[in-house]
Amino acid sequence: MFDFGTILVYVVAYFGLFTGIFFILTLIENKDNLSNPKPRYFSKVSVVVPAYNEEKTIAKTIRSLLNLDYPKDRLQIMIVDDGSTDNTYKVAKGFRKYGVEVFTKENEGKAAALNLALKKSKGEFFGALDADSFVDKKALKKIIGHFQDKNIMAVTPSLKVYEPKTFLQKIQYTEYLMGIFLRKIFAFLGSIHVTPGPFTIYRKSFFQKYGGYDEYNLTEDIEIALRIQTKGYEIENSVDASVYTVSPAKFLPLLKQRIRWYTGFTENVIRYKELFNPVKYGNLGAFILPGSFISVGLVIITLFYASYKFITRILIQNFINLRAIGFDLSRFFHFKPDIFYVNLSSKLFISILTIMIGITTIYIAKKLSKEKTKIKFFYIAYMLVYWMLFGFWWLIAGAYTVLGKKVEWGQRKDYVKKAVV
Predict the structure, then answer these.
(1) Residue range 34-53: mean pLDDT, rounded
(2) Alpha-carbon Rg of the chain, whole angstroms?
(3) How far is the C-alpha of 61 from the C-alpha of 136, rounded, in Å?
(4) Distances from the Cα of 197 to the Cαs of 114, 120, 336, in angstroms?
């Protein structure tokens, strides 16, 4: 007899097992390439902090850059205030005495601020740090050695959540650890397709040859990464170059962030759809990009199916069967402990194995990135909650894309660019 729930469990579990085991084997195969190459010399690096209404965190961000263990005469630090309405510019100006260059301009969005900094930059390499992010003092030295390979155009850091306090932040903390693991695996597979905004370092010659940041793009970090891939260059990862970012603490700001991320990802993948060519783009086109959409599809199907079963089996069936005499509470809560409400008997082993693979990847990420914050029991919460949030975020982002609803990222108007030193 056809049992959709049973088939779904097997498909989800086997997909998770296949990708998880494949990624772990990839890591084992490349275990001798995990360390960062030591730089032969310290190249000039320009780092910009684009800021809009960040007066509460920007001072800490700038201090983290000033504390970098890198020759001071080889480091250019710039702040671009993108038309803030608070005291961001005033706070930033206080750091000019330490050699920090501070500019202000009309509000045009993050990408425009980055392009202004590109024009002002003097380094061979260029990077940015979000105004609510903080970089470990050894991060730049760990990153810069990777550029000895002339085909590498960008190196991504190990991005982590800064001091997670709320339940949602702790869920994101675990999510970011999973991202650390995946980004290193993608580097081994030549398939990094996102260069995170906080402290990814680029070879500036790429921008000089192929243009700066797309000022009308929702996710400029994804666009740049995909553009690099289409030009046949490589993107590397430094798995222990730690950068900490303040993640959204509440549901609505987190939802807005993810709508922008996922809508931007979809738009950019459509824009660079040629990357799905497995012959030309290898693992990226054959497995990583298609796999990302397969995983999204499986999560959304599972979310719909679990919701349907919950409504029909728990809310409707149990209420209909209530005796007219009274409400039998024990009867209402009496149902078998199923995964997605299907019997566990034939699926327990594969389900546990899939979960263990997930736990292993989190443990590996912690070790590789030298993260010391204790996870405790939040991996369990991550397993129980994250897939539902992930599916919900993608459903909303998909609706935005299908309906053509605009997702704004700052003010992206055709201003005449002006800078004030």
Answers:
(1) 94
(2) 23
(3) 11
(4) 10, 19, 46
Lowest model confidence (mean pLDDT) among 7-21, 110-124, 132-146, 169-183: 7-21
Please list, in sequence order, all residues whose beta carbon lies within 8 angstroms of the beta carbon of residue 13, skipping any fewer than 6 positions away. 347, 350, 351, 353, 354
| Structure tokens that stand for 284 in this block | 């990226």
Pairwise CA distance, residues 292 & 375, whole Å:
26
Secondary structure class of 395 (helix, strand, coil): helix
pLDDT tens-digit map of 235-268: 999 999 999 999 999 999 999 999 999 999 999 9
3-state SS class at 383: helix
Question: Where are the domains positioned within the chain?
Answer: 1-30+136-421
CA angle 316, 322, 328 (to 5 degrees): 115
Report the pLDDT averaged over residues 16-23.
Answer: 92
Distances (CA, A) of 233 to 10, 181, 192, 279: 38, 22, 11, 16
Instruction: Report d(CA 357, CA 374) in Å as an integer.
Output: 19
DSSP calls for 319-335: HHT--TT---HHHHT--
Mean pLDDT of 282-286: 96
Q: What is the pLDDT of residue 234?
A: 97
Between helices 4-29 and 167-188, what is the axis angle to 10°?
60
Rounded to whole angstroms, the Cα distance separating 127 from 156 reads: 10
Distance, in Å, from the CA atom of 53 to the CA atom of 356, rounded to the nearest integer, reads 43
Cα(400)–Cα(259) distance, integer angstroms: 8
* The pLDDT of residue 312: 78
CB 225 within 8 A of CB 154: yes
Quote the mean pLDDT of the chain.
87
Beta carbons of 122 and 46 less than 8 angstroms apart: yes
Between CA 350 and CA 356 the distance in angstroms is 10
Distances (CA, A) of 253 to 168, 249, 256, 257, 322: 11, 8, 5, 6, 41
Closest CA to 291 of 172, 191, 395, 391: 191
How large is the average pLDDT for residues 302-316?
Answer: 81
**The predicted structure's pLDDT at residue 323:** 47
CA distances from 381 to 173, 296, 304, 341, 386 (A): 12, 20, 20, 19, 8
d(CA 141, CA 48): 17
The conformational region for residue 146 under phi > 0 = left, psi -120 to 50 = alpha, else beta, is alpha
